[in-house]
Amino acid sequence: MNNELHQKVLTWLKTAGNSLLASLESDLEVEEKTSASDLVTRMDKEVEAYFFREIKAAYPNHQVIGEEGITEEVKSTQGTLWIIDPIDGTLNYVKQHRCFAIMLGLYHDGQPIAGYIYDVAQGEIYHAWVGQGVYINGQALTPLPINSLSESLIIGNLVSFMTNWSNSQAVFEKALGLRYYGCSAYGIMAVIRGEAGLYLSRELKPWDFAAGLAIMTAMGYPVSRPDGRSLNILEASPVIFAHPNIYQEALQLMN
Predict the structure, then answer these.
(1) Which of 27, 10, 32 is nearest to 117 (CA)?
(2) Each residue of 3-30: pLDDT tens digit?
(3) Are 85 and 119 in contact (CB under 8 A)?
(4) Domain 149-254 is of which CATH architecture?
(5) Is 85 annotated to bind ligand?
(6) Spacing of C-alpha 64 from chain mean position
(7) Residue 42 CB neighbours (<10 A)
(8) Which residues are involved in binding Mg(2+) (predicted)?
(9) Is 83 one of the annotated binding-site residues?
(10) What are the strands, taking DSSP E only, across 10-53?
(11) What is the pTM of this model?
(12) Where exactly are the structural domains of the chain?
């Protein structure tokens, strides 16, 4: 782990998180993007711009992409790349003031190096550097045990399961139960902690999965498309995050 870089990231996350919490008492200047439930606020833009400035000031040769397009156009994964989601779960941020997160993924030549997920309302920072374990607020994480799909909760959108997208209904019927948070970071965190055995989404953008992919790679947990193919970190994709003990079972049911 690059400790100097790690400490910078923690400082950036806490500064951005404090700004988000303070902003809940002010006008968020909410706009619709593609629908009434797909929102962007001034804080999405301000937080992304803040990370872009800080990263470029500290590491001018690094590439940076983010959800709101305030960063830069990236066409190649060569070199060091940061992938930012300034507020994952913006609708929750606006309507509930909780269940939202900041996510940062750090990659080099297309391979995950480190991932950070900051559950702002709970004050919990999940981080992992590949090969060095997973931590919550600096304390090593020991996930709850997962043995089988039939004993596991799963995370996903009920509509995807009920419309049998990618034969996902077979997974839903085999699992113990379904949860949905409206925030990909929360689905990923549930799998990281062992509170759920699987998180499935029919489409995530790179900023939705990059941090989680890095953290779960550090854990030795599988992340892929539902057909088993690897993810392209510059492309949107259906994604399955899973505990190793149920990954193959889920893939077989979906394929």
Answers:
(1) 10
(2) 899 999 999 999 999 999 999 887 777 7
(3) no
(4) 3-Layer(aba) Sandwich (3.40)
(5) yes
(6) 16
(7) 14
(8) 67, 85, 87-88, 208
(9) no
(10) 31-35, 38-40
(11) 0.94
(12) 3-140, 149-254
- Mapped onto helix, strand or coil, the DSSP state of residue 68 is coil
CATH number of 3-140: 3.30.540.10
| Identity at 45, one-letter amino acid code | K
- 3-state secondary structure at position 47: helix
Is 87 annotated for ligand binding? yes
Residue partners of 189: CB distance under 8 A and separation at least 6: 101, 117, 119, 126
pLDDT value, residue 33:
73
Tokens at 205, concatenated = 């953008």
Q: How many residues does the chain have?
A: 255
- SS3 call for 78: coil
5, amino acid identity: L
- For residue 168, give both structure tokens: 């996902």
Q: Can you tell me the distance from the alpha carbon of 118 to that of 63, in angstroms, rounded to the nearest whole number? A: 21
Calculate ∠ Cα 251-254-255, nearest 5°: 85
| Residue the block writes with tokens 């303070």 | 22
60 token code pair: 């001018």
Amino acid occupying residue 37: S
pLDDT of residue 167: 87
- DSSP SS3 for 153: strand
Backbone angles phi, psi at 105, to 5 degrees: -115, 135
CA distances from 213 to 85, 111, 253 (A): 14, 10, 22
